[in-house]
Amino acid sequence: MATYLPTLKQLQYLVALKDHGHFGRAAEACFVTQSTLSAGIRELETLIGVVLVERTRRVVRFTPLGERIADKARRVLREAEELGDLARAAGRPLSGDMRMSVIPTIAPFMLPRILPRLRTDYPDLKLFLREEPSGAACEGLHNGRTDCVLLALPYACGEISSALLFEDRLFVAGPEAELGSPPTIRAADIDETRLLLLEDGHCLKDHALAACNRPEMRAEATMMGTSLHTIVQMVDNGLGVTMLPEMALKAGILDHTGLTARPLEADAPSRQIALVWRRASPREKDFLLLADVLAEAR
């Protein structure tokens, strides 16, 4: 008896619909028409003999079995992609497509320095970049949406391999009149009611609070900024003080402001910048080479 197996294209359509929750957006992500994507999923349902998606005018709802099959399809697609990775790994280093997620407290400060060198030294590398918070970046790594993540540690990112690039010191930034004259700012001396931090979802907030080791600070600090540039503008308007990573200062984030910054004095006053990837990835040699380039370009 002949066995009919789902095609990778059908599985791709199913996963895209699961990710986007909308036929139109899923079709755009797959670069096909909505009717093509819908027909592909119906063919898949007919092939395996079960309904995977409940369709209404307003809602796309996966059945319980559809949820499980979509998760399995994601793993199958990732394994299929790694077949290509094996071939690329045997060829020239750092060549072909690579998808890298970068968290927002690294991307604007580090990427402008590293991208020109990568384009010059590795012209055959096509690097697709995605800026997203740590949680989404790690989720994307494990479901195969991205190949590696430029991340700040410590952060619970699941089963990964990693290469430490460098330590990124934390600084306290604010008006000079408020910071005073000491060469460093002790964590104990920070007024938690004046501290502005990034909103939940940004690991820099957790790194800053962990470095200070003051439980009351988590309750009192104002967590309202959507980006470090927004936080800096609020501090420059007299709303408080904040903590910034050294890479942001080197990139000139305080230029054209009236603010100054001094190193944080604490037991662990820095975060670790690292490149992480899925454990046992066939492109590990590429990631280690990329990590060397990133570390040199700091």
From TrEMBL:
Q: Which GO terms describe its cellular component?
A: protein-DNA complex
The record ties this protein, via CDD domains, to: PBP2_OxyR
Q: Which residues form the HTH lysR-type domain?
A: 6-63
The protein's matches in Gene3D superfamilies, at most eight in alphabetical order, are given as: Periplasmic binding protein-like II, Winged helix-like DNA-binding domain superfamily/Winged helix DNA-binding domain
InterPro entries annotated for this entry? LysR_HTH_N (IPR000847), LysR_subst-bd (IPR005119), WH-like_DNA-bd_sf (IPR036388), WH_DNA-bd_sf (IPR036390)
List keywords of the entry alphabetically. Answer: DNA-binding, Transcription, Transcription regulation
Return one GO MF term.
Answer: DNA binding
Q: Keyword Iron-sulfur: yes or no?
A: no
- Give the family, as the similarity comment puts it: Belongs to the LysR transcriptional regulatory family.
PANTHER family, alphabetized:
TRANSCRIPTIONAL DUAL REGULATOR HCAR-RELATED, TRANSCRIPTIONAL REGULATOR OF OXIDATIVE STRESS OXYR
- Designated name of the protein: Hydrogen peroxide-inducible genes activator
From which source organism is this entry?
Sphingomonas aliaeris
